[in-house]
Amino acid sequence: MDARTPNTTPFHKRPAFPVLLVQAAVTVLVALALWIIQGRVAGYSGLLGGLVAVIPNAYFAYRVYRYSGARSARAIVRELYSGEAGKLILTAALFVLVLIGVKPLEMLALFAGYFAAVATGASSLLIVKGFPKH
């Protein structure tokens, strides 16, 4: 008997969605600031850096929130570990793709975008707590 209960809540109503939205907004704002201050290459480098953080986080959120309920506890824990492993692999793969495939690239801007998105995710408890519930 399968004790897993699929989570039928739409993705945009799950707890991680507001965090992903704020990470995406921060990524765009950092990219725009870099574009204005340092030029086009810095702008798209910052955008790519943010996406290297946001895309794996979205994958992780999808995996972790696939199941719900007490009967799904084992499945949720399993998804937590496999989601984190997948997130790390996806992050490394995206960095490799960007570093190999995008020329010219402004390294400082790439990492500024990445760290801005990661810092936003690190403050996710504040974001989720302040997000209005419907």
Short description:
The protein has helices spanning 17-38, 40-64, 73-101, 107-122, 124-130. By secondary structure, the protein is mainly alpha-helical.
Structural summary, described in words:
One of its GO terms (cellular component) is plasma membrane. The chain crosses the membrane at residues 16-37, 43-65, 85-102, 108-128. Keywords: Cell membrane, Membrane, Transmembrane, Transmembrane helix. It is found in: Cell membrane. InterPro entries: ATP_synth_I (IPR005598). The protein contains five helices and no strands. It has 134 residues and is mostly helical. The protein has one domain. The longest helix is centred in the middle third of the chain and has 29 residues, at 73-101. The chain starts with 16 loop residues before the first helix and ends with a helix.
State the major sheet: none
Structural class, from secondary structure content? mainly alpha
Low-confidence stretches: none
Q: Output mean pLDDT.
A: 86
Q: What's the order of the H and E elements?
A: HHHHH
Report the span from N to C terminus.
Answer: 34 Å
Strand content: under 5%
Number of helices: 5
The percent of residues in helical segments reads: over 70%
Main traits of this protein?
5 helices, 74% helix, 0% strand, elongated
Strand-helix topology:
Blueprint: H1 17-38, H2 40-64, H3 73-101, H4 107-122, H5 124-130
